[in-house]
Amino acid sequence: MIPTPDLSHLTKDDYEYVYEPAEDTFLFLDGLELEVDELRTSKPSICLEIGSGSGCVSAFLASILGTSTALFLCTDINQFASSCTLATGRQNKTPLDPIIGSLATPLLQRLRHSVDILLFNPPYVPTNMDEADGAQHTAGIQGSWAGGTDGMQVTDVFLKDVEVLLSDTGKFYLVAIKQNDIPGIRHRMMTEYGLKSVIITQRRAGREHLFIIKFSR
Amino acid sequence: MVRLITHNLLACHVKGCTTNNFPLQFQDVQIELQEAEFNPDFVRNLLPRLEWGALVDAAKQVGDTSLPPEQPEMTDDDVLQKLHHVLLEIHITEGAMVCSNCKHIYPISNGIPNMLLSEHEIG
């Protein structure tokens, strides 16, 4: 049993601006815990989380792998989220390296085929497209969930970069819900980028049927 | 915390800025040293992912001249220790990183780099 990261330093005020860990986050942690053996034996050096929010998931990954064994880069478009990520790293004695940025854009050039563990819990909730556009533009808390048509507006942009980022043995873990058309995502990643995938775990939480999918070469 | 390992992985990504857009140059930086646990295997694994010249240059900009100008063929513990310090223990807390090509300024505040671009700069 890997302990859930200590988030006691984050307050109600933080969660006004930053997504508070919820069912999807906890399913993500459970999924990673199911992968413990594989994660440890693959000896990753570079981990990258897109949209790290509170920093809970990367701190958890660091506690699985050991805090001095790998680099834990964490991007978020929301500056308040990056601050929370940094604080969560400190609170859990884990050096998380937050970067305020959109998806992996500032790292794409230098991390070509270099990322060993790639994590993304995207804004997956279906909303109208204007709402999702506006949410990314203002880079606030709404951007953590508003996903546009099919909830895939942001995820689709990032999926184009996954193959470019993954190292030879790299793994990409993605959170998705049923309305995102998971068979469609998996099929596209296979046919367009040659990435195979497997569903690690799934759970119904209220109205959401959540999945954790792992992609690899 | 912008550590030099992070700096070594960031490039300017303004639309059309594709040459001489790495490494970013430090400007008016404040430094803090924080001890980190030494893990020789981790440092060794990072080696193939580094741009050595950019690292040596960045280290010089923050006042550390411990690294040889060329990447040594033999990475003994002494070299790994120096690399560990340069890559993981030097933190840039305030200042900016500037693109040598397009001069875009990426601010660093409270130890976090802001790599966001405005709408017209996105490719």
Automatic annotation (TrEMBL), chain A:
Entry keyword set: Methyltransferase, Nucleus, S-adenosyl-L-methionine, Transferase
InterPro entries: DNA_methylase_N6_adenine_CS (IPR002052), Euk-Arch_PrmC-MTase (IPR052190), PrmC-related (IPR004557), SAM-dependent_MTases_sf (IPR029063)
Signal peptide as annotated in the record: none
The keyword Transmembrane helix belongs to this UniProt entry's keyword annotation: no
PROSITE patterns on file: N6_MTASE
GO molecular function: nucleic acid binding; protein methyltransferase activity; S-adenosylmethionine-dependent methyltransferase activity
UniProt subcellular location: Nucleus
UniProt record, GO biological process: methylation
SUPFAM superfamilies in the record: S-adenosyl-L-methionine-dependent methyltransferases
CC terms in the record's Gene Ontology section: eRF1 methyltransferase complex; nucleus
PANTHER family associated with the record: METHYLTRANSFERASE N6AMT1 (PTHR45875:SF1)
Protein family per UniProt: Belongs to the eukaryotic/archaeal PrmC-related family.
The protein's name: Uncharacterized protein
Automatic annotation (TrEMBL), chain B:
One Pfam family it belongs to: Trm112p
Signal sequence, renumbered to the chain: none
GO MF annotation: an example: protein heterodimerization activity
One record GO biological process: rRNA (guanine-N7)-methylation
Domain of life: Eukaryota
UniProt cross-references to InterPro entries, sorted A to Z: Trm112 (IPR039127), Trm112-like (IPR005651)
Classification via CDD domains: Trm112-like (cd21089)
Recorded family membership: Belongs to the TRM112 family.
PANTHER family: MULTIFUNCTIONAL METHYLTRANSFERASE SUBUNIT TRM112-LIKE PROTEIN, UPF0315 PROTEIN-RELATED
Assembly and oligomerization: Interacts with TRM9.
Name by which UniProt lists this protein: Trm112p-domain-containing protein
Native source organism of the sequence: Serpula lacrymans var. lacrymans (strain S7.3)
